[in-house]
Amino acid sequence: MAERSDEVKLLGMWASPFSRRIEIALTLKGVPFEFSEQDITNKSPLLLLSNPVHKKIPVLLHNGKPISESLVILEYIDDTWQNNPILPQDPYERATARFWAKFVDEQIYVSAMKVVGKIGEERDAVVEATRDLLKSLEKELVGKDFLGGKSLGFVDIVATLVAFWLMRTEEIVGVKVVPVEMFPEIHRWVKNLLELGVIKKCYPSRR
Ligand SMILES: N[C@@H](CCC(=O)N[C@@H](CS)C(=O)NCC(=O)O)C(=O)O
């Protein structure tokens, strides 16, 4: 748990799946934190000072020290507050978790972002490409409650981007990227996520 002297502040954004990852991890660990909603169209001096390289949220400020990039922040949180571990202990399993986290961010997210920006046949092609990537995640879920196994882990937290951001974005853009007939395991996993108190707290709306 957090020490009395710990000052934890999250520069984030309500709608950002990257920022939500950090909220989930801190909530899971029981670390009290201050959430500072940022406007990325008018970046605050604190954000620019804290993340001068990428100028992006989320940024975690721990006793004034900034940490950027959500995957890096998640590992920092896990190293700093060791209760309710997020990453597995075994080196091979840790490497595998990092592999899937990279896959979600570098492949699935990048492909899904293109769905938002395209129309017509071009969009059909990127929807197909995104589904191809999602098939790997679908396979990973067979026989498991969570991507982390029996309980929520690093990859689940990272992949909430698929469960909530992508599966809500598809409603907004009006294209079903993750249909239940094609991805029953992913839909089962989303149901499991929604039963967790930490998810209910961090993703309170709608689903
Ligand atoms: N790789 C970053 C991605 C973070 C990211 O894309 N943040 C967006 C908001 S969702 C942002 O701050 N965008 C501002 C910009 O691009 O200038 C992470 O994992 O933290």
UniProtKB/TrEMBL annotation:
CDD domains: GST_C_Tau, GST_N_Tau. It is found in: Cytoplasm, Cytosol. It comes from the Eukaryota. Residues 90-207 form the GST C-terminal domain. GO terms for cellular component: cytosol. It holds the Pfam family GST_C. SUPFAM superfamilies: GST C-terminal domain-like, Thioredoxin-like. Residues 6-85 form the GST N-terminal domain. It is an enzyme of class 2 (transferase). It catalyses: RX + glutathione = an S-substituted glutathione + a halide anion + H(+). Keywords: Cytoplasm, Detoxification, Transferase. InterPro entries: Glutathione-S-Trfase_C-like, Glutathione-S-Trfase_C_sf, Glutathione_S-Trfase, Glutathione_S-Trfase_N, GST_C, GST_C_Tau, Omega/Tau-like, Thioredoxin-like_sf. GO terms for molecular function: glutathione transferase activity. GO terms for biological process: glutathione metabolic process; toxin catabolic process. Its EC number is 2.5.1.18. PANTHER family: GLUTATHIONE S-TRANSFERASE U7, GLUTATHIONE S-TRANSFERASE, GST, SUPERFAMILY, GST DOMAIN CONTAINING. Belongs to the GST superfamily. Tau family. This is glutathione transferase. It comes from Thlaspi arvense (Field penny-cress).
